[in-house]
Amino acid sequence: MNERKDIDGKAGALMLLLCAILGLQQVVIKMSAADMSPMMQIALRSGGSALLMAAVVLWRRDWISWRATMVPGLLAGLMFALEYFFVAQALLYTSASHVVVFLYTAPVFAALLLHWRLPQERLTRLQWLGIALAFGGLVYAFFGGASGAGTGGGIAGEALKGDFYALLAAMAWACNTAIVRSSHLSQTPAGQTMLYHLLVTFVLLTLAAFWMGQQHFVLTPVVWGSLLFQTLVVSFFSILMWFWLLRRYLASRLGVFSFLTPLFGVGFGVVLLNERLEPGFIVGALAVFAGIMLVSTHQWVARWLLRAAGVRQAK
Question: Which residues cross the membrane (predicted)?
Answer without folding.
Answer: 42-59, 71-92, 98-116, 128-152, 164-182, 194-212, 224-245, 254-274, 280-306
